[in-house]
Amino acid sequence: MRYGGFTLGIQSFTLRKLPLLPMLDAVQRLGLTAVELIPETKLLFYEFGSHFPLTEDAGEIARVQAALAARGIRLAASGVHGVADEAAARRLFAFAKAAGIPLLTIMPDDEALDALDRLCAEHPAVKLGIHNHGPHFRYDKIADVEATLAGRHPSFGACVDAGHFIRSGEDPVEAVRRLGPRVHGVHLKDYRSEGLFPAGCILGEGKLDLDRFFRALRAVEFGPDDALSLEYEESPDDPIPEVEECLRAASESAERVARG
Asked: What is the full DSSP assignment across 200-248?
């Protein structure tokens, strides 16, 4: 499928019930060539497996890299990572450098922000994307992300989660426009309503205006090498049919926008 000049990959949380190799096989069958791999994931009372845990083990890093290369899949990003302090920030950058990860999707504590800013200057090949995670999280509103990034290194940016901004009562299109060149990553998902526990839906069937969203990405020069990751959180035991519907919707919209 074509995506109007964008490279659409997938956030591996979509396929969280599968171990790494079957998950990558599924990504390959979907015709996708980019993936954002989840680390150890703990959220409220839930804990999920990891597709690429933060590690200093060169053998483990090589194993994941080989699995990706064998399937022609590019590692576009890793996340979402919590970052508590400077020590955690340095471990995360060392991991990204060793594994060749171009974007770290993060939800940092305030105590880590200055260190992350310095590390962006020290490691120009690694970008950061603050992930908005919806109501009652540290990064809820567009303004929360803007305030944190003000005056920071250009590589210190945002991963715009379209669905979570909808949950927060914000317009994902406005988020892209306001964050502009700091949009280093996107989690592409849709919800029909706002609030804590709305059900997700097929792209374009909820509050996300796909055409406007893709136009906004083009306007801020979000490119084919940037991490645009479909994330579908519903039907975790068998999400593939709905993921295929999302991919069709994204392809049709992106191509419409590309044609003008």
From this structure: EESTTSSS--HHHHHHHHHHTT--TTSEEEE---S-TTS-HHHHHHHHH
Spatial separation of the C-alpha atoms in residues 259 and 254, rounded to whole Å: 9
- Residue ranges of the domains in the chain? 8-259
Output the six-digit token pair for 215: 């136009």
Q: Percentage helix, strand, coil, to 5, in the chain?
A: 40, 20, 35
For residue 46, pLDDT beyond 80 = no
Pull the structure tokens for residue 56.
């200093």
| pTM (two decimals) | 0.96
pLDDT digits (tens, 9 = 90+) for 153-173: 999 999 999 999 999 999 999
CA angle 179, 209, 222 (to 5 degrees): 40
Q: How far apart are CA 140 and CA 39, in angstroms?
A: 22
Q: What is the pLDDT of residues 212-222, one digit of tens each?
A: 999 999 999 99
CATH architecture entry for 8-259: Alpha-Beta Barrel (3.20)
Question: What is the rounded distance in angstroms from the CA atom of residue 255 to the CA atom of residue 253?
Answer: 5
